[in-house]
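This section describes the prediction task in plain terms. A model, or a person checking by hand, is given the sequence of a single protein chain and must write out its three-dimensional structure as a string of tokens. No templates, partner chains or ligands are provided. The sample shown here is typical of the held-out split.
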Amino acid sequence: MFSKILIANRGEIACRVIRTARQMGISTVAVYSDADAGSLAVKMADEAVHIGPSPAAESYLIADKILDAIRATGAEAVHPGYGFLSENADFARTLESEGIAFIGPGPEAIAAMGDKIESKKLADAAGVSTVPGHMGIIADDTEALKIAREIGYPVMIKASAGGGGKGMRIAASDDEVAEGFRSAQNEARSSFGDDRIFIEKYVEEPRHIEIQVLADSHGNVIHLGERECSIQRRHQKVIEEAPSPFLDEETRVAMGAQACALARAVNYRSAGTVEFIVDKNRNFYFLEMNTRLQVEHPVTEMITGLDLVEQMIRVADGEKLSIRQEDVQINGWAMEARVYAEDPSRNFLPAIGRLARYRAPDEDGGNVRIDTGVGEGSEISMFYDPMIAKLATHGGDRSEAIARMQDALDAYYIRGTGHNTAFLASIMAHPRFVEGRFTTNFIAEEYPDGYAPVAPEGELLARFAAVTAYVHGRHAARAKESGMSGEPGTPEDDREWHIQIGRDLHPISMAYRDDGAVFDMDGRSFGFETGWLLGDPVFKARFDGEPATFQVDRRGISYFVTHRGVEADIRVLTPRAGALAGLMPVKEPPDLSRFVLSPMPGLLVSLAVEEGVQVRAGEEVAVVEAMKMENVLRATADGVVKTLHAAPGDSLRVDQAIIEFE
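The expected answer:
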């Protein structure tokens, strides 16, 4: 077995590999850029080597710098994680020539599956069902338009070297083909250095389901069941689960057999994933093969009990697989949610910044798992994917896995940068998701304008009010006991409060107890028990024996409260203050309708207008790039351009004015 391995990656996957290597008694080497000098992976590894500036193109993507780190540390093997050099056949070939083990498949398999066009041809030859489309490279948008018309709309425009949703567009008309071809080509060139584009039929009402395969160098190939990855945004996965709530046993067996057939056809070894698109009638078509570990691998590990990183290391060391297909057992259900630094209310735009407060939920005996590469004080950098963590839960069935995910999301406390935990909680509670009735269009259909948090109603409103009044009363009692100014009263007092949410006022009568409170609101009596300690922003309680977790932040004279994806700004007032609050005038927000504002921090790539020109609603006016993704900004109304406040090449802050109309 190897004595030392180098992880040619960063963030949560580097930490993940280090944990398994440590359990196997293998020492580890981390590599890091300027931005990652203080990262968790650097702290966890036995050794760490600096490899360059923050941009990935000047550090993690430079194979020679990784090779220098290998030689300097004497590492015997390299685990590439995912992304960066993980599917670079030349890198794997160079390691092989220098006698360094690549913890992944051979370079031939990587090359064969890394090109989406060639991989489809190989899949077709191996008897794997493929999506109808044009297998050749497309020269320009004129040829793209001709091919799209021949295939029939809608079509998918895709980068041959693409992945992670980059270089991918759906087109349902001639105009969308021209624009989509240009944007996909630009993104592909920026992200992969390869602007080759192809087109295939877009499968309507699709589900994205993938098969995890595992193979060794002795000809043994097995699959570990499927993962349902249909909850996506901009073709990037948001929620994954295993198994799929959609597949029947017959389809599951057929997909597994085809995935293994493809792996055998390319002499695959290591862990890999064969991705399929599945239509509403359970017809399935090959999408691509990822010749690496997948981001969502934890759900497979949770239902099979296998450590895929360990299996990859053992296979790379020449060992045979220790399990056969008939040994694979599926136990229960697992969910994974990707916790991102992004602003769901701004159509999920990246939200970089420092994690001023970071407290993950407790990992619970294999039922709750957090894979992360950050901690309190970590920086979510503009240079890399804005993932904070992967949160995974396990249950005896799907309902239990969902419930545990909801509880864990409620307890995930992140401050200092925007994040998507409330949005994830909203998905978990959505009736279509709970019923398993969704496709890859779920987020586009149910959240067409991004995520707008809802206010609490009914019994949930009473719980929000009670929790906030309890926290407020405890703070008031401490202020009184310490001689500071504040609301009079102690936790033992019966108090009358007015809860204000927006313009609405709700009277509440609260009787405080050492272990909770009882209260009356809207003519009904409620009660809860809690062991909450003053100052803790995570409030855990039991209402009628049912556990519930809230997050409560004091913001001046108000409280920001969240639970199950529901949010509210709440003020706790005396009856007199409540009566006066109802008389206060409403302050109207400023009118910004005449401006085109940057929706995110990014680079202004281009302007499509000049001062004095007439613009129609829906026309493209600018393109802003962030996290290597191009975002086309359009006019929301007819108008004449008065002033250009920025120029191509400018770095923009969020809400910075780009264009002003008359």
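For orientation: Residues 458-481 form the longest helix (24 residues).
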